[in-house]
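Worked Example 4.2. Consider the chain below.
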Amino acid sequence: MGNFNSYNQQKMSELKEQMAIAEAEAAKYFEGNQAAEEKLNKALEQIQTTAQLLRNGMSEKKNAR
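Applying the procedure from the previous section yields the following structure tokens:
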């Protein structure tokens, strides 16, 4: 991953974990488990938040050049 610092590596790991959770909950939801909908929505919100943190870090690095 090149020059990623430990913070960015941690956030990428979190994204991978959150995606795995979302995938599992989506499978349950699409099989008819309505209770999985709330967990899926929460996982998707966490993915969005983590991705935004990574984008902010990328912007800061770009602007520091």
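Residues 48 and 61 are 20 Å apart (CA to CA). The chain has two helices and no strands. Compare this with Example 4.1 before moving on.
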